[in-house]
Design goal:
With 444 residues, the protein is of the alpha/beta class. 35% of the residues lie in helices and 14% in strands. It has a seven-stranded mixed β-sheet, with helices on both faces. The N and C termini lie far apart (50 Å). The N terminus and C terminus are likely disordered.
């Protein structure tokens, strides 16, 4: 017998690019985790959503879907200085980094990665078999130690080995530090090494050209620059012997199996085109907001003179500030600002809901106690200075409250109906609401 289930009305969710926390219920300052969807991306996705067809199908509907994918590939290639054949569409930065780390197995004998790489690189190389993996140290400013890299590469001289793969991110997701990629590529190629760069955090913040960088592999992602989540690309130099890591169909010229999504690819291309185009316009946000970083950090240091700005003396993108106030834990800061509807993150990865010290800061020689106090504020194209002002005001209140209560234990609510206590002693709301609003950690 077939059972009839009661019909439920569909839930209507407003899906508009303007429905972001920047201008609605709070102040979103976690762009390095993900950026709000751009209008251009949303419009491109709406157009693609009206089409039904598998890009691999040979009928007219399928070929219309294929045209969307290939037009988007052309846009991505033009915006990022690559040939269309070099653009391998993936599910995002993590998959692209995994493909880069594992796709050259059998062609390389060793992988060198910097100590401040994203976890999707560091974890991927741990699962690569048949090659040795060595870490490239960084300086206290978070910059790759070029002397150490040179010494590591020199060990290949005179040996009958297959090449080395060097992997370094262009812009660090926690500190915003820009790596000296020109010097790294020159050193690596002089020793016959391949170079992979994770450029996820660089798109739309600094000029990025796959061709001009001279690298062999480059990772990009849509949602860090205002595109949809779940889509990215790996740029692979034409002729590079890259083995697929996902098997099935022959999509992406046999380099990555799986049906391409015209909707996501269209949004990806539109976002990248807009983000890159903004860098060319003098009145666009990247040209207009570099002073915000300096203003923000000078005011933070005025509030708390013992604050440490990580990467302060290195070249950084002007949209990220990672800092720590000794004794003021990351979790307390995030929860306090979240209470005020200001959304930032910790300079640490989240594991099972617990904030652990940042491997990036530890690689920079930062003491564990101080690393546990690090937070990251990051902004972008839709941010207003009002959000920065709210963040500063909220952080100052939290910092001053922390100082006054530093010796006092935080009272705990006894049951679900009791009044919830702010992490720094303020009172308001229910415990359930407090739990709902609490931020467990950060997405890097």
């Amino acid at each position: 017998m077939i059972r009839d289930f009661p019909q439920q009305a569909p839930v209507s969710v407003p899906l508009t690019p303007g429905n972001t926390l920047d201008n609605k219920s709070g102040h979103y300052l976690d762009y390095n985790a993900t950026a709000p969807l751009r209008d251009e991306a949303w419009q491109a996705m709406q157009q693609a959503a009206g089409l039904t067809g598998n890009p691999s199908s040979t009928h007219r509907s399928g070929q219309a879907a294929r045209k969307i994918v290939e037009d988007a590939r052309q846009i991505l290639a033009a915006a990022l200085g690559a040939a269309p054949v070099e653009v391998i569409l993936t599910s995002g930065g993590t998959e692209s980094n995994n493909l880069a780390m594992q796709g050259l197995v059998g062609c390389v004998h060793r992988v060198l990665v910097s100590e401040v790489e994203h976890d999707s690189v560091l974890q991927a190389v741990r699962h690569v078999r048949g090659v040795s993996v060595e870490m490239i140290p960084v300086t206290g400013r978070g910059v790759v130690d070029l002397t150490a890299l040179h010494a590591l590469l020199q060990r290949d001289q005179g040996e009958n080995f297959s090449p080395t793969l060097v992997s370094v991110m262009l812009v660090n997701n926690e500190t915003g530090v820009i790596q000296p990629l020109d010097d790294i590529v020159t050193l690596a190629h002089a020793h016959g090494a391949y170079v992979h760069v994770d450029a996820v955090q660089a798109i739309g913040k600094i000029p990025v050209s796959f061709r001009d960088l001279g690298v062999d592999l480059m990772t990009v992602s849509a949602h860090k620059c205002g595109g949809p989540q779940g889509i990215g690309a790996l740029m692979a130099r034409e002729g590079l012997p890259l083995a697929p890591q996902m098997h099935g169909g022959r999509q992406e010229l046999g380099r990555r199996a799986g049906t391409e999504s015209p909707l996501l690819v269209a949004g990806f291309a539109a976002a990248v085109e807009r983000a890159v185009g903004e860098l060319m316009t003098q009145d666009s946000w990247p040209m207009d907001k570099p002073s915000w970083q300096q203003t923000f950090e000078s005011r933070i240091k005025a509030i708390a003179p013992d604050v440490v700005i990580f990467g302060e003396h290195a070249l950084r993108v002007p949209t990220t500030s990672c800092f720590a106030a000794p004794g003021f834990s990351s979790e307390s800061q995030i929860m306090a600002l979240n209470w005020d509807d200001v959304y930032i993150s910790a300079g640490a990865a989240c594991s099972s809901g617990k904030i652990r010290p940042s491997h990036v800061l530890r690689a920079m020689g930062v003491a564990e106690d101080l690393a546990r106090c690090a937070v990251r504020v990051s902004w972008g194209y839709a941010t207003t200075f009002d959000a920065i002002e709210h963040c500063l005001a909220s952080w100052e209140r939290a910092y001053q409250r922390r100082r006054s209560l530093s010796a006092q234990p935080v009272p705990a609510a006894q049951n679900m109906n009791q009044t919830a206590t702010h992490p720094l002693g303020f009172v308001g709301g229910s415990q359930a609401e407090s739990r709902h609003k609490a931020v467990q950690g950060s997405v890097l």
